[in-house]
Design brief:
The protein is mainly beta.
Length: 923
């Protein structure tokens, strides 16, 4: 029936249909061969990290498993053996880096979330050295939140400005052509970086309405337009919050093709190629080509003469793997003319079936999860990872999640941020398939450009694939002359490794195949060719890629703040500054008569909304939080729940009264920065004791027999000319306390130094100001408060005459504060202080992943047992299926009740990937 329908359309339209593939023409043969060679010379490597959950608290552990794939079929990579994983804070600083050893593309690790870190939005990036050739856009990058207060960024100058959302138009196939009907996709991105709905009309230059449109999903939509010669077009738009805008549509070409793809049929993609009258007249009977490729491999080609003004080409989907297919129309001279991408679902994913003996369990009961990956008669060995969380205690949105499927098959091949990537892969429907097709119209394809592939010149590769760790350096004489044939020995006492090598003609030495633990101290000893030790050793530092600013939109940004909001923020910050100063100076008794000032945040409109605190002593008399609020707060109208700074999607998490620190009920008052419009309801802001730092859970008595040893801080990166740590006083960044300005942190802590109103340090001994030296760069005295407190690793105080003397007149008369930052700005080489032929060097070797602790409850719970309130119930990164495609794992539930969510992801030895979710109740 469908075939007859398409034939009927063809006859009515005068279309010419092409439904065969061929590669016998010289150009098609060249295109296929060129792409094959390009893919072989530049294999695409991708990394995906399966995280145990998206949100964490200070003191938690972020558990992850890394899957690294390469080539056109997403098989586990044998190209690289070293993976770099980094946790990066909101200031774009790497706070933790893990170097992991991979075996057949698989590895796993963890990050410990320090209690000293500022809560907020962090992100994890992962990459191999080979991936650096493609650029940081190819790195794995995943947003994670460390639970805490939301940061506030005020507009410049303290003024609010009316900014319009970003609206773009994308004609299908590349451009509008006069006389041809085209589909035009529209995408609207709001100020918060997320899709914003709108509707509108298109009018020509005579004011005639020629099209209407409305977005269908996340600010994306599509409409049809037939531009005419001599006409121009504008779109009049009305956003969901009634903002009106007008945009010019892209100008139409006088001559060209329109390329469209109908991807709605499950078995066939129909590619429609139409030429307008002028192009058909000029190029009738000329040869054109269509090439379709996916993941760097050609799966369909055809050629045709322009004997009719339009063609429909049938492309069987069974030729393609699951993923993004790129359809490109070429001229007879091999020039790419039009392009369109479409998502092909070939149903070739890894089948993962999860089951358990029961649908409901009790607290601390043992649970067994069975895994079956066999589909029909197909069985392959699969490497899997599993995470179990109490979903009732973990707010989140399943559509926002990154999975191995949506990451490797979709988001990693598209440019820009993809909102709600998992939406397109859960509960398949015709609407979701249509929404996915509109996404293909609005996002750029990042893999390659055909002009680059067809060119005989190949890009030079700056980075080579790493199979293991290396150490490179050079030997020089005291005068700086390279030493050839020098003898170099490397000793690693932690592993007992002893190895040696010699330098080349340029004095360069290199140790390869190093399998050393993380931050292990190594000793390098060098001698001249005739055993002389008067040798300077230079060790080359690892060249890590710079951190690219994370443009992932925040779900709750602080933008468009009203003057009242800005006023409250300013007053609150000033109060914090005053409080920090009081903490440094003993004041006389003061009677506080003012009311408690609530902290301005995004939920209370930055201090402009009515806020009430629930009396926790009375609330405990009610069974649920909702009952307590309705009974104790008359006039409550309902609102969204907020748990530890996050808006809860779905039912409120299951927390007992003993776990809740405070409950704030906020009634809105006008503009809501979260919704971006007036809010008729409010928020119930719940803070748990764990988040507030007041959890007083008593553990069993533990006797500590060893004495606590505080190791000396590592000052090896200090620029202090006396040597790192050799100063009148050293203050570590993590001991500076909570303050707004750096001078506030130091006031009362630095001996013999006072600070002026603008933060300038002044030496009390001679009344002279002190210079600021940041990583070796001497800055003016007044620049101290320009520094970000969280970026400071250490501050060394040089105020005495001896300490100042080595710098002479290069610094101010009062001395200097030598600041070492946390940023990865190490010099290219590190060397010993004197050319003695010996150096001790902290080598960053492989991280050894910790083992997830899963408690065993083999006996009934005793009264003195501490409560088990884990959020991550179980984590296992190394599950391997047997020859029958089966595996299983066991664990014990925690004390918390609710819905437990089991997520299993993985890949088999043929590159098939899969992700599956299973839920059960704990009652």
């Amino acid at each position: 029936m469908q075939l007859r329908l398409y034939l009927l359309i063809s006859l009515l339209s005068g279309l010419c249909r092409i439904s065969y593939a061929q590669t016998d023409s010289p150009f098609l043969a060249k295109a296929t061969q060129s792409l094959s060679e390009y893919s072989a010379d530049n294999p695409t490597e991708k990394v995906y990290l399966h995280l145990d959950r998206p949100y964490y608290y200070p003191g938690d552990t972020i558990w992850f498993k890394a899957y690294t794939v390469a080539g056109t079929h997403h098989k586990l990579s044998a190209l690289s053996g070293v993976l770099y994983c980094e946790l990066i804070n909101e200031n774009d600083s790497v706070v933790v880096r893990r170097v992991l050893k991979m075996a057949a593309g698989i590895t796993w690790g963890d990050f410990s979330v320090s209690r000293a870190w500022k809560p907020g939005n962090y992100h994890i990036r992962a990459y191999t050295n080979w991936m650096r050739n493609a650029g940081p856009a190819w790195f794995f990058n995943q947003r994670v939140r460390i639970m805490g207060a939301l940061s506030v960024v005020s507009p410049k100058g303290g003024q609010t400005t009316a900014k319009k959302p970003d609206v773009q138009f994308f004609p299908e196939g590349g451009g509008l052509v006069n006389g041809l009907r085209s589909r035009v996709a529209i995408k609207c991105v709001g100020l918060n970086g997320l899709g914003q709905d709108l509707s509108g009309v298109v009018v020509d230059n005579d004011g005639n309405e020629v099209a209407t449109f409305a977005t269908q999903h996340l600010g994306m939509g599509v409409f049809a337009l037939s531009p005419q010669q001599g006409k121009s077009y504008k779109a009049h738009i009305v956003t969901a919050d009634s903002l009106k805008m007008t945009f010019d549509l892209p100008a139409a070409l006088d001559k060209g093709f329109v390329l469209t793809v109908n991807n709605s049929d499950p078995d066939t993609a129909y590619v429609h190629v139409a030429a307008n009258d002028q192009l058909f007249h000029d190029s009738q009977n000329a040869m054109f080509y269509l090439v379709a490729q996916s993941a760097g491999q050609v799966y369909f080609t055809t050629q045709f003469k322009l004997s009719a003004s339009s063609f429909t080409i049938s492309v069987p989907k069974k030729r393609f793997p699951t993923g993004i297919a790129q359809f490109t129309l070429f001229s007879g001279a091999g020039e790419p003319l039009n392009e369109r991408i479409a998502f092909i679902n070939a149903d070739d994913s890894l089948h993962i079936k999860l089951s358990s003996p029961a649908a409901a369990y009790t607290a601390r009961q043992k649970v067994k999860i069975d895994i079956d990956t066999k589909k029909d008669s197909l069985v392959n060995i699969a490497s899997l990872s599993a995470a179990v969380v109490n979903e009732s205690r973990l707010p989140g949105n399943e559509n926002d999640e990154s999975t191995i499927v949506n990451n490797l098959l979709l988001t990693s091949d598209l440019k820009g941020y993809i909102e709600q990537p998992n939406y397109y892969f859960t509960e398949a429907s015709n609407q979701k398939r249509a929404d996915l097709d509109v996404l293909m119209l609005t996002q750029g394809y990042r893999r390659f450009e055909w002009k680059q592939v067809l060119s005989s010149a190949r890009p030079k590769l700056a980075y080579q694939a790493e199979q293991d760790l290396e150490l490179e350096g050079s030997l020089k004489t005291p005068s700086g002359t390279p030493l050839p044939n020098g003898k170099v020995t490397l000793l690693a006492t932690s592993t007992g490794l002893i190895t040696d090598t010699t330098t080349d003609v340029n004095g360069i030495f290199r140790f390869t195949g190093l399998d050393l633990p993380d931050t292990g101290k190594i000793v390098i000893r060098a001698r001249k060719q005739h055993n002389g030790s008067n040798v300077a050793i230079y060790v080359k530092q690892t060249d890590y890629p710079a951190v690219v600013k994370d443009h992932t939109p925040d779900l709750y940004p602080a933008n468009n703040l009203s003057p009242a909001m800005l006023k409250n923020i300013t007053e609150y910050r000033e109060q914090r500054r005053q409080d920090s100063l009081k903490a440094r100076t003993q004041l006389s008794g003061v009677t506080i008569t003012a009311k408690k000032q609530f902290k301005p945040d995004i939920f209370n409109g930055y201090g402009t909304a009515l806020e009430r605190n629930l009396d926790m002593s009375l609330a405990r008399n009610y069974a649920t939080l909702g009952e307590a609020i309705r009974a104790l707060m008359p006039g409550y109208r309902g609102g969204s729940f907020v748990l530890d700074g996050l808006v809860v999607v779905g039912p409120f998490p299951a927390y007992s009264w003993d776990e809740i620190q405070s409950v704030r009920v906020i009634d809105p008052n006008g503009y809501d920065p979260i919704l971006g419009k007036v809010n008729q309801f409010g928020y119930v802001v719940v803070t748990t004791k764990r988040y507030a730092g007041t959890d007083t859970t008593v553990l069993k008595e533990v006797v500590i027999k060893a004495k606590k040893i505080n190791p000396a801080p590592d000052m090896s990166r200090s620029s202090n000319l006396h040597g790192g740590g050799d100063a009148d006083q050293v203050i570590m960044g993590d001991k500076m306390g909570d303050c707004i300005n750096v001078s506030d942190c130091l006031n009362g802590r630095v001996m013999g130094v006072k600070f002026s109103l603008n933060g300038t340090p002044i030496n009390n001994r001679n009344g002279a100001p002190m210079s600021i030296i940041v990583d070796g760069l001497i800055l003016p005295p007044g620049s101290l408060n320009d520094l970000n407190k969280d970026d400071i690793y250490s501050i060394e105080v040089l105020r005495s005459g001896i300490a100042r003397s080595i710098y002479g007149s290069s610094i101010a008369g009062g001395g200097a504060l030598v600041v070492t930052t946390r940023r990865e700005a190490d010099p290219k080489y590190v060397t010993s202080q004197t050319p003695a032929g010996l150096i001790t060097y902290p080598f960053q070797g492989y991280h050894k992943a910790r083992v997830f602790y899963s408690p065993r409850y083999d006996r009934p719970k005793a009264e003195n047992d501490p409560p088990d309130t884990r959020t991550t119930i179980y984590w296992s990164p190394n599950i391997i299926t047997d020859k029958n495609g089966k595996a299983s794992f066991e664990y014990y539930n925690a004390d918390t009740k609710g819905t437990y969510r089991v997520v299993v992801e993985g890949i088999d030895d043929q590159g098939r990937i899969g992700s599956q979710v299973y839920r059960y109740k704990v009652e």
